[in-house]
Amino acid sequence: MQEAILYEGLQMTIARDCAALVDATLNMVNTAPRHIKFKDMANAAGVNPTWVTRFAKGDIKKPNIAVVERLNAYLKDV
Q1: What residues contact residue 55 under an 8 Å CB cut-off, 6+ apart?
Q2: Which 3 state secondary structure label does DSSP give 74?
Q3: pLDDT by residue (tens digit) across 32-77?
Q4: Cα(38)–Cα(48) distance, rounded to whole angstroms?
Q5: What is the pTM (predicted TM-score) of this model?
Q6: Rounded to whole angstroms, how far apart are CA atoms 78 and 19?
Q7: What pLDDT, on a 0 to 100 scale, did the predictor assign at position 13?
């Protein structure tokens, strides 16, 4: 029983961390300097520019966390 509770707690922590990363990245996408285009972001993250557009609008409810991480890393460096 304790293992299940620990696992659920870990799962909730990971979910919160992922949600925070998604929120931070979404904010970075929407406040990026004008010279950084969605096409540039997409190339850095390895996705289609349409994905970045949909992500920026909040249309992707469960984005791939690996893509979000790459996008976040790119935006931190520019």
Answers
A1: 26, 29, 63, 71
A2: helix
A3: 999 999 999 999 999 999 999 999 999 999 999 999 999 999 999 9
A4: 9
A5: 0.81
A6: 22
A7: 65
Q: 68 vs 24, 38, 46, 72, CA distance in Å?
A: 10, 14, 10, 6
Q: Summarize pLDDT for 8-34 with one digit per residue, the tens.
A: 555 556 677 899 999 999 999 999 999
Residue 8 in tokens = 């659920």
DSSP notation for 21-73? HHHHHHHHHHTS-TTS-HHHHHHHHTS-HHHHHHHHHT--SS--HHHHHHHHH
SS3 of residue 19 by DSSP: helix
Identity of residue 47:
V
CA distance 16 to 1: 23
